[in-house]
UniProtKB/TrEMBL annotation:
Domain OmpA-like per the UniProt entry, residue ranges: 83-198
Segments for region (Disordered): 29-80
Subcellular location: Cell outer membrane
Name this protein carries in UniProt: Peptidoglycan-associated lipoprotein
Protein's membrane topology: Lipid-anchor
Comp. bias regions, Polar residues: 65-79
One Pfam match: OmpA
Keywords: Cell outer membrane, Lipoprotein, Membrane, Palmitate, Signal
């Protein structure tokens, strides 16, 4: 019985090795790119496997880096033109009362002035960024800042700016304009800002 086991173990190991070798060889064949030199070779399968593995390794390793580079190039926004940069700097901020997303008379006047500037450049898209002061929970301030941005957007749409040119985002208290813990600082942080959205 022991003698049979000693003979059986090498046979089983050889069988496992052959089966696993065939599986590897099959995966190399399905993953390799089609190339005339690879398909016309008449070398034995075991000799071809290492050669094709070496041939496909550089192509596979080069592919992700080139893909990443092309994605990075595509995701970079185009630089602002002189007119767009002037417009971005000319759009005035809108300020809000404490715990409110209602547009004051001063805010409506500012939005009307911003509308005239936006109307002069019909191809420019704008992102309205809502902000809050530091008081209140993070969740509450995020929701309030989004409502503030939406209020400005609705007003600009009512004036005649197409909604497709506008987008909104709420930052809550994440982007304070002024550092400080008093009413003067808080009043400057309760605002909507306007940026070019490329």
């Amino acid at each position: 019985m022991k003698l049979n086991l000693k003979r059986l173990v090498p046979v089983l190991c050889t069988g496992v090795f052959i089966v696993s070798g065939c599986a590897k060889q099959q995966s190399v064949k399905t993953d390799q790119p089609l190339a005339p030199s690879a398909t016309t070779q008449s070398a034995p399968a075991k000799a071809a496997a290492p050669a094709t593995t070496q041939q496909t390794a550089p192509a596979t390793s080069a592919l992700p880096s080139s893909t990443i580079k092309s994605e990075q190039i595509q995701s970079q926004p185009a630089p602002l033109t002189q007119k767009e940069a002037t417009l971005a700097g000319a759009l005035e901020k809108v300020y809000f009362d404490f715990d409110s997303d209602v547009l004051s008379d001063a805010a409506r006047k500012t939005l009307t002035e911003n509308y005239a500037k936006l109307k002069a450049m019909p191809s420019v898209k704008i992102r309205i960024e809502g902000n809050c002061d530091e008081r209140g929970s993070d969740e509450y301030n995020l929701a309030l800042s989004e409502r503030r941005a939406q209020s400005a957007m609705k007003y600009l749409v009512a004036l005649g700016i197409p909604a497709s040119r506008l987008s909104t985002i709420g930052y809550g208290e994440e982007k304070p304009a002024v550092a400080g813990h008093d009413e003067a600082a808080w009043a400057k942080n309760r605002r909507d800002e306007f940026t070019i959205n490329k």
